[in-house]
Structure formats: structure tokens, C-alpha cells
Amino acid sequence: MKSRRTSPWFRRFLPSATAVVMLGVGVLPSLSQTQPDPAAPARPPVTQAGPASVADLAEGLLDAVVNISTSQNVKGTEGPGSVPMPQAPEGSPFQDFFDEFFKNPEGEGGGQRQVQSLGSGFIVDAAQGIVVTNNHVIADADEIEINFADGSKLKAEIVGTDVKTDLAVLKVDPTLKALKQVNFGDSDKMRIGDWVMAIGNPFGLGGTVTVGIISARNRDIDAGPYDDFIQTDAAINRGNSGGPLFNMYGEVVGINTAIISPSGGSIGIGFSIPSEMAVGVVTQLREFGETRRGWLGVRIQPVTEEIAESLGLKLAQGALVSGIIKGGPVDNGSIEVGDVIIKFDGKDIKQSRELPLAVAESQVGKQVDVVVVRKGEEQTVKVTLGRLEEGEKLAEAEGTPPEEDGGPVATAAVLGMTVGELNDEARTKFGIQQDVSGVVITEVAADSLAAERGVTAGDVITEIAQESVAAPKDVLDRIAALKEQGRKNALLMLASKTGELRFVTIRMD
Known about the structure:
single chain; 509 residues; 7-stranded antiparallel β-sheet; 28 strands; 19% helix; elongated; disordered N terminus
């Protein structure tokens, strides 16, 4: 029997490590190449190695990092852990083994079976038995068990979860075992190039320590509405999810949650939720069992170069307000559609995704100053924030479109689009709600710039260059006026069938 060290599963990871070493030898410069140039400026001192050793640091932290085992009962072959039965060659002695191992005890297609998964977590409050992990580690679990470094185990219950940031707080009975905790550090103080250490349960191999650096900050990987990840090259693999990322003081500065990997293994691109975000979420989950985020009540989109040019902005930055939620905090006219938010509660908003982060981290009921650019001029408005969780219910309650039928009349052609009057016949055909006003787009040429911008039949033009339009002639007049002014782009505010607004720019030359 082969030893585990030389088994195929482990051997797959050896060639890449060997290649790194060989490449390192291959690129060593010759002696003549390393001679300093007297005319060259003095070089800064070079750090030859990372920390001398992280053994003492790791030893003090391992007991606070836990493995999380979950089980879920699913019907038949359904569930995330479903594995198709291997097909052995006819007459193979392994076929009986496969039949027995994969056999459904309740008969084919019925009954239940148990799906298990593994993840990582860490203790942040030993006295209360509080454990932090990723939400996706424990989602839909029927049972959760915490496995400690000394081999002991405790059942855990869920205190609260947050899907948006993929965080979960669990609780074990601290009277059953002496626990050790770790503390959160300040992720905002971490710089690109700082050393970090990850501890977790990769591939079920508990108590695994890896070291690397912070490779990048503020990463948006489209995982959720509040993406602001720390990127690290410390090895993170499946099973590391929910585990801590430590600084060299033993403080948790990140919670490991995702990797980019075509093969399923680490390629040195891992992502951690910064502690600055996690602390607020964890605190709310512990106190309320849910999150209570601030809410502004606006729909936004990025300010592109074309939109900035159309609005007369010097820089393409900020968050363009494309809609106002009815019944929300700014449904009183304090903020208007077409405003560009450039500062929120003293924080500069350079990219649109920064606004939801800033608002969500604010206290519900707090009055804040919001700086907007409105028709070329900066204005400061005061807004009392609502609660996001209540606002989501309002947004969901904003009507549904009726069935399609019929057709509009009185049309005009402009910028690759055919536009018409928004009458009852057009509303019926395209399913446009009664509270939507403007000029309906009845056709879009397939090879037009409008089509490239995602404009489709049934969209409604409500404004052009921040001026309302109500008839096809208004559209033609506004486009003609913009051309006379020497504008290259037309900024259109479009409404969907249900009234959701967005801005698009279309070149006119």
C-alpha cells in the first residue's frame, strides 16, 4: 500500500512547487550583471526574506480556529453534495462496491440521504461561545458541529446570518469546554505587501497554516452588493471558507471566503472580507440576530465618461441617481433623478459601488449630509436614513406589468430608434404601467448604437439631457438642440415597463 505522502492526490501539488524552485535558480543574474552603476541613484535596502518564523504566532492562534462540519438531509439524489455513481467496466470486481456505496437505502429516486460539508471558523468571544464563519458554510444545514484542535467537538446553533456579506455567527455552550478567542484588528491599516497568515481546514486538513502577503485591496468580484475584498496570495483552498486571515500581531483582519481557481485548488488568488466590514455585521447579528443597515432609497448607476460629458462634469466619478424608491427617505424631493452623488456623510464617492457601502455602514435614523451635482451645480442636502431591510420590501411592492397586446401610433425615427406616443394602446402592447410617462420606443435597429447600449422596444424616454419629453416631436427637438450646441452625446433617461429608471448615452455623430 502506498504511503499517503506519495499518493496521487498529494503528488499533483508537487510539480508546481518544484517548478517555482527551478525557475528561481534559472533567473539568477550573473556576477557581472549585479555590479552597481556608479551613475545610478542609490537603491533602497532590499528585504531578503519574510518573517523569520511564524511558529510562535501560529501556536498561539491554532486553538482559537475551528473546523465546522455541517450535515443536511436531502431527498433522493438532490442536493449540493450529489455525486453520480461511477460506471465500472462490465464484470469489474469494483461494481459490487459501487452498487453498495452509492445505493439509496429507500429505493431508487426516493427516501433521504445526508450531505456533509466542511468549513472553517474562529472564536471571537470565549466567555459567550461565539464563533464567526461564512454564511455559505452553514447555509441550509440541519446540524452544525464545531471541531476543535484538540479533537473535541461541540454542537452549535445559529445566532444570525447575513447573505449580503456572506457572514454567520454561531454559538456553542462555553460551560462544556474551555475556549480560546482571537480579536479583530483594523483592516484599514493593512497595506498592499503586508504579511498575513491564514489558518483553516483546507480539504478537511484541519489546523493548516499558510503565509503570504496582501496582494490587493478593495476588490469587487461580483459576489454581492458590498464587495470590498482583501486579495491575498496566502494559500486558500476549499474548506478554508470562514477561516481567519491574521496580521503579524495575531489580529483577524479578514475572513477568507472565495478563491479564483480553474482547477479548484489555490493559484494564489484568494479573497477575504475585511474586518472593518465584518465587525459591524457581527455586532448586529449578535445583538439583533439580523442586520440593520442604513438606507438612502435611491437607485444608482456608474458615471461613465459619456455620461460625465453629457452632464458637463469634469471627472467621471460619483453615483448617478437613476431612480427614487417610493416611500423612501428621499421621496420628498431632497434628492432627484439625474443628481450625481459625490459625497456622503463626509466620504468622497468616486465610484458608484462606494455609495451602498457607505450607506449600509451608517446608523438607521442618522441624519447625514449628501453632496450632489444637480444641473452642473453642487448642492448639499440633509437626509435622515431609513432601514435597508424595510426598504427592500417597499422596492419589491412596486407593481407588476400587465399582459402585452396592441400597438402605438404617431412615430418618428431618431438615433436608430422609432419613437411614438405613449397612449393606452402602447401601454397595453408593451405592458407599461400607468405612472410611467414620456415617449415610448417602439423599434430599435439591430445595428444601431442604441441597440449596443441595451435600449429595447418598450423602453420609455422620459428625459433627454435632463429635460422632460412627452411627444415624439419633443425628442426630435431636443436632439436637434444638442447638435446645435456641439454636443457629441445625447443623455437619455429611460424608464422600464415597471418604471425603473436608468441613464444611457448615445453618440449623435
